[in-house]
């Protein structure tokens, strides 16, 4: 059923307002993460050595796999939006379902990483090294969980075919958040695990 031009205009204004709101929200979280990374950099620069003597070095293989998984989840969400814009409902749903599956796999592997490091003696009470690591990765994991909740919330409507090439703005908003969280992880991976 076609909506009136006035209804379309009202909907466009609502979409624009929600997009601006999401951009402001993401900008505020970007500042929060920037402050966290700045604090991490100060801790690292002011320490005698990183990792400190007696503390295990952070692994690179599992975080690298997790990075590829998270990048893949962003790509799958991008493909979902591309599919819904083309009106390809089947591909849209497949790509959309794949995104939280990959996000959940990332979360499980993150817990495995934490458990391995705790078994090696690195925990949140292991001085600034341990507390900085667990705070940064835990804070990021919290945002992954929020993203997973958002993705799961849009799935029922997607499965019912309620998103169309003209009306899929909620998916775009979720994608903005998800891509932001993925971008933060890439920066975290490079600064915490690689440097």
Largest sheet, described in full?
none
- What share of the residues does DSSP label as strand, in percent? under 5%
Classification by helices and strands: mainly alpha
Beta strands, count: 0
- Please tell me what the overall shape is: elongated
Write down the Rg. 20 Å
Distance between the termini: 56 Å
Topology of this protein?
Blueprint: H1 5-46, H2 61-86, H3 89-119, H4 127-159, H5 169-194
Helix pairs in contact: 1-4, 1-5, 2-3, 2-5, 3-4, 4-5
Describe the fold and architecture.
This protein has 195 residues and is mainly alpha-helical. It contains 5 helices and no strands. The chain has helices at 5-46, 61-86, 89-119, 127-159, 169-194. Helix 1 packs parallel to helix 5 and helix 4 runs antiparallel to helix 5 (169-194). The longest helix has 42 residues, at 5-46. The model has no long low-confidence stretch (mean pLDDT 95).
List keywords for this structure.
single chain; 195 residues; mainly alpha; 5 helices; 81% helix
Summarize the model shown.
This protein is mainly α. The protein contains five helices and no strands.
């Amino acid at each position: 059923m076609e909506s009136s031009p006035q209804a379309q205009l009202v909907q466009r204004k609502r979409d624009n307002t929600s997009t601006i709101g999401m951009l402001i929200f993401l900008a505020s979280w970007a500042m929060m993460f920037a402050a966290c990374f700045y604090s991490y950099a100060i801790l690292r620069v002011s320490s005698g050595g990183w990792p400190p003597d007696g503390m295990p070095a952070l692994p690179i293989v599992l975080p690298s796999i997790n990075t590829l998984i998270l990048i893949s989840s962003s790509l799958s969400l991008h493909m979902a939006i591309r599919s819904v814009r083309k009106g390809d409902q089947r591909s849209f749903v497949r790509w959309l379902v794949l995104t939280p599956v990959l996000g959940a796999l990332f979360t499980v592997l993150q817990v495995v990483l934490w458990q391995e490091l705790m078994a090696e003696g690195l925990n949140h009470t292991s001085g600034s090294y341990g507390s900085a690591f667990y705070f940064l990765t835990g804070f990021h994991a919290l945002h992954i969980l929020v993203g997973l909740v958002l993705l799961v919330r849009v799935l029922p409507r997607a499965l019912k075919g309620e998103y169309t090439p003209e009306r899929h703005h909620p998916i775009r908003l979720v994608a903005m958040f998800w891509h932001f969280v993925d971008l933060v992880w890439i920066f975290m991976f490079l600064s915490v695990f690689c440097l």
